[in-house]
Amino acid sequence: MDVPNTSCEVIGSMRSAWAWGLAVLIPGCSKAAEPVLHGPVPVVSAAGVASTPTGVPVLVRVVTSPGGAVASASAPVPLDIALYPWLSDSSIRSPAPVEPLEARFAPPEGYTRVPLADGSFGAWLRRLPLAASGTPVRKYDGAVLLDADHDNLAAVIAIDSGRADLQQCADSVVRLHAEWMWSRGRRDMVYRAAAGTLLPYERWSRGDRIVPKGSGIEWVPSGRATTDHAGFRQFLDAVFAWANTVSLERQAKQVDLSELRPGDFVILPGNPGHAVLFLDVAFRPDGSRVALMGQGYMPAQGIYVLRPSRWQTWFEIRPEQGWIKTPFWEPFPWSALRRLDDS
Questions:
Q1: DSSP H helical segments within the chain, as ranges?
Q2: Greatest CA separation for the chain
Q3: In this model, does residue 48 exceed pLDDT 70?
C-alpha cells in the first residue's frame, strides 16, 4: 500500500486475536499503525496484510478523513482471516478484505439476528469478509459489470471469481459452502455434475481428474495428488464446469420457510437458471423476518450482497406473498427454498 496523508490501523490478526499494542510500519503510511479505540467511524480507502516486527500477520486498513487528516475509529469488529482460506492463498486474486458482513449491515430497528451455532455455515456467512465500500462488481476478466453505486449493489464480498467463465450463480453457492467446509478442516465435500456423476474432493486430492466420456464424464487417474488450498480451488473450477442449477437443486433438500436460516438458498433450475443465497436473517418479536441476500451471476463475476432497492438493504420475508423477488431474476416461489446437507 502506498497512500499519502494516511494512517494505518491494525484491526485484527490472522490468528483472530486482537493486535492491541502492536505497531506496524507500512510503506506510504504517515506513522506506525496502531489500533484506534474511539472516535467516528473511518472512511476505509484501502486494506491489506502486513507483518509485525515479530512476524505475526495482521489485517490493516488505511483510513483518511477530509483534508488528509487521520480519522479515528470505534473499537472494530473482528475479521478472522483464518476462517476464509482463500485470503491466504497466494495463487488467488481477490479484493482486499476490510470488515465482516455483520459489522457493515446492522439489522433494521427492532430486529435481532437469529441465533446460530458457532462453526455453522450460517455463522460463517454472517462474518464473510467484505471489500471496501465503493468496490464495483467485476467480471472474471476484470471488466466492471455493476458500478459501485448501482441501486441493487450493497457490498462486494472479498473473494475471487476465478480466471475463466465458470463461477456463476449456483457455483457461488457451492463455492461458499465448500470453502466453509475447508475452513472447518473437512475434506469430505461432494457435489454433483449435471449428468449425475458424483464429484468428491477426495478423488481430486489423490490425483484423479474429470474428463468427458460420451454424453457424460468420468474420473481418470491423470493428475498429481494435491492437498493444498490451491489444488482445492482447481477442484472447484472443475465442479463449476460440470455442475449447474439443475444438479444443485437435485442435491439440496427442500426447506420449509418457517425453518429459514442463513446458508439456505432459493433456486430455479434451468438453462439458464438462477440461485440466490441467504447470508443473514433477523426477526422481530411479532414474527416478522428480514434477510440479507447475495449472489454470483452470469457471466462469472464477484459474489456480492444484493439490495432490493437503493433505500433498502434487507429483504422482507413475507410468507403470505408466496414468493420473494430479487433483482435481475423472476420471483422465487417459497417452494424453491433449499439447503445443502451439513450446513
A1: 101-104, 121-126, 169-183, 201-205, 229-242, 245-251
A2: 65
A3: no
Residues 6+ apart with CB under 8 A from 92: 86, 160, 230, 233
Measured distance CA(19)–CA(30) in Å, rounded: 19
Let me know: does 50 contact 58? Beta carbons within 8 Å.
yes
Predicted confidence band of residue 77 (pLDDT cuts 50, 70, 90): low
Respond yes or no on whether the N-terminal peptide bond of residue 85 is cis (omega within 30° of 0).
no
Question: 100 CB contacts (<8 Å, ≥6 apart)?
Answer: 77, 78, 79, 80, 126, 127, 128, 129, 130
Residue 45: which residues within 8 A CB-CB, separation 6 or more? 3, 6, 62, 63, 64, 132
pLDDT tens for 142-193 read: 999 999 999 999 999 999 999 999 999 999 999 999 999 999 999 999 999 9
Q: Residue 34: pLDDT band by 50, 70, 90 thresholds?
A: very low
Question: How many C-beta neighbours within 10 Å does residue 249 have?
Answer: 19
Q: Which amino acid is at 121?
A: F
For 193-212, letters b (16+ CB in 10 Å) and e give bbeebebebebbbeebbbee
C-alpha cell read off for 115 = 441465533
Choice among 34-43, 166-175, 204-213 with the minimum mean pLDDT:
34-43
Q: How far apart are CA 294 and CA 336, in angstroms?
A: 16
- Going 223 to 228 to 233 to 236, the CA torsion angle's sign is positive
CB atoms within 10 A of CB 333: 13
d(CA 228, CA 336): 35
Which residue in the block uniquely carries the three cell numbers 442463513? 262
Beta partners for 275?
A: 267
Is residue 69 packed enough to be buried (19+ CB in 10 Å), middle (13-18) or exposed (0-12)? exposed
Tell me the three-class secondary structure of 87-128, residue by residue.
HHCCCCCCCCCCEEHHHHCCCCCCCEECCCCCCCHHHHHHCC
Cβ(188)–Cβ(202) below 8 Å: yes
Assigned C-alpha cell, 210? 474429470
